[in-house]
Amino acid sequence: MAWTTIRTDAVLDLPAFAEPVEIHHDPAQHALLALDPASGESEVLTTRLPDLPLLPDEAVVKDWSEHSGLARALAEAGVVELLDAIAVGPFAATAHRVRVLTAGGAA
Asked: What secondary structure letter does DSSP report for 7?
């Protein structure tokens, strides 16, 4: 994957992200990754839905289990714009199609 750093100090209002993180984006894979600069630990924040066509600046953010509230937190941090909710998998878990706001496109 070819990651590009789009935020260096994103504050996400979630227990799993107690400290600011770097947000990286791979538009070819429609992926977002959070990196803790202090520990070097990273976590992919998106999921792939092969049957869902996405524009290059779009991704699908997980919003279930330990990721509950993640899409909202990313939107509040100015990392993404929420586009719509999607039911995923056999249990219809919620994910969100989002537009990734690069540093140049952020408000």
From this structure: E
